[in-house]
Amino acid sequence: MFTILPIKGHIDQIDGFNCDGISAGLKPNGNNDLGFIYTNEPCDVQAVFTENRFQAAPLKHYLQYEEGFKTNFVLINSKNANALTGKKGIEDINTIFSSLSFDLVNPIMSSTGVIGNPLPIDKIVKGANSFDLNAKSGENLARAIMTTDAYEKSCMYEVKLEDGSSFKIGAVAKGAGMINPNLATMLCFICTDAAVPLNDMKEALEVNSETTFNAISVDGDTSTNDTVMLLANKKSNTYDKEAFIEAVRLVMHDMAMLMVADGEGAKKAVAFEVRNAASKEEAQKAAKALSNSLLVKTALFGEDPNFGRIASTIGASKVISDEEKLVISYNDVVVYDKGELCFDEEQEAKAAKVLGNDKFKVICDLGVGEYSFTAYGCDLGYEYVKINADYRT
Questions:
Q1: How far apart are CA 17 and CA 38, in angstroms?
Q2: 148 is in an annotated binding site
Q3: With bands split at pLDDT 50, 70 and 90, how would you rate the model's confidence at 282?
Q4: How far apart are CA 355 and CA 253, in angstroms?
Q5: Is 112 considered catalytic here?
Q6: What is the pLDDT of residues 333-371, one digit of tens each?
Q7: Contact 26, 77 (CB under 8 A)
C-alpha cells in the first residue's frame, strides 16, 4: 500500500537538487532564458526523445554518453533550439561545457526555441558562469525554459509507503505549441530522491509516455528537441516499484495536461475518448485522429457541436467502424446514436453548452470491440496563427 500526495513547491524541495534560471540576454525582452538543474552528487538519468528524424544537437550530444552514465548538471536554454546546426551544434555544446568554471560530471544540455540558428556561445557561457549552484528557485527555472508558454509548468508529489518511509518526485516543463503525439515541442525534467533502479527508471518513462505525452496534440506537428528526462539521486533510500511507476504517471499526466491547456491561443482542453474499438491500436489511431484534426479543432473553437466532423474524422482514420454501431457524445449529451440522429434543437443546445466549457470530453463509442484510448487536444483559433506567424521575432 502507498499514498501519493500533491505538495506545493518545485523540484528544489527534493533533497540534493538545486536549480535556478536567469536572463543571459537570449530573449530580447530580458526575461529568463537560461537555467540549470544541479545535483550535489552525480545521479542516474534516463530520457526519451522525439521521433522526428532531425534530432537536435543536444539530443545527439546526450546519446554520445554510454548507457547508464551519471550526471550532476543539466543546462537548459530557451530562444534557440540548436537544431539543424550540424556537427558544429554538438561542438558548440562541448565548447560551452569546457568554458564553465565549475566541476561537471557528464553534463547535459537541453535547448528549445528557433530551429536553424547557432547557439550564442558567449552569452550562454557568461550566463552559466554566473550561476549560484546552491540556488533553489524552481520558479526561476520554470520561467527560463518557456518559449510561447503563457505560464510556468511544474508539479510536486510526496509518496508515502506503508512502513512510514517516503520519497519525493516532481517536474518542471515547457510546451504550448508544435505539439503532436509521439512527444511534443516540449521539455520535461522529472526529479526524484527515490532509490529507483536504472532499469525501472527507463520502464517508468516508456510505460507512461503512451497515455501522457504521446497522447496529446495541439497542432499535429512534432519538433526536433522533444525531451522527457528523469533524474534520480536515491537520497531517500526509499523505493517501491508500483508506487514509483504510478507517481511518474501522475507527474507526466500533470505536465501533459498543462501543455494541452496552454496550447498556443487555446481556450479549451478536450479529451477525445474512443471506446469499444476493435483493437488497442485502432482505439489509439481514432483518438489521435480526432485530437489532430484541424476541422475538429476549429469547430471546438467556434463552440459548434458539429458531430459530422467527428464522424468524418473517425471514418477517414480507416479504423473498423460502422455507422449503425457508432455513438457520439459531448460529455453525456448524445448527438448520434447507432444511425439515429439525436441532433434536434434541444440536443444541439445542450451540446453547445458543453462546448462552452473550458474542459470537456468528446466520446466516440465504435461498438465493434472492447478496447479504449483517450487522446488529449485543444481548440485552434486566430491567436495560434498570430503567434506562429511572428515566432522568430
A1: 6
A2: no
A3: very high
A4: 23
A5: no
A6: 999 999 988 988 999 999 999 999 999 999 999 999 999
A7: yes
91 exposed, middle or buried (CB, 10 Å; 0-12, 13-18, 19+)?
middle
Q: Can you point out the beta strands (E) in the chain? A: 2-6, 17-22, 34-49, 70-77, 108-111, 153-161, 166-179, 184-192, 227-232, 269-277, 327-330, 333-337, 340-341, 359-365, 371-378
393 is in an annotated binding site: yes
Contact between 46 and 202 (Cβ < 8 Å)? yes
pLDDT digits 0-9 by tens, 5-42: 999 999 999 999 999 999 999 999 999 999 999 999 99
User: Of 50, 148, 185, 227, which residue is the catalytic one?
Assistant: 185
In whole angstroms, what is the distance from residue 20 CA to residue 40 CA? Answer: 14
pLDDT at 252 exceeding the cut of 50: yes
Grid cell for residue 20:
535556478
Above 80 in pLDDT, residue 95? yes
Residue 185 labeled ligand binder: yes
pLDDT tens digits, 206-239: 999 988 888 887 655 566 788 999 999 999 999 9
For residues 231 and 12, give the distance between their C-alpha atoms in angstroms, rounded to a whole number.
13
27 is an annotated ligand-binding site residue = no
Question: Greater confidence, 252 or 341?
Answer: 252
Report yes or no: 224 and 53 within 8 Å, Cβ to Cβ.
no
264 annotated ligand-binding residue: yes
CA distance 93 to 224: 16
| Residue whose C-alpha cell is 474512443 | 274
Report the C-alpha gap between 157 and 326 in whole angstroms.
Answer: 40
Please, what are the domains in the chain? 2-261 (3.60.70.12), 269-389 (3.10.20.340)
* Annotated binding residue 325: no
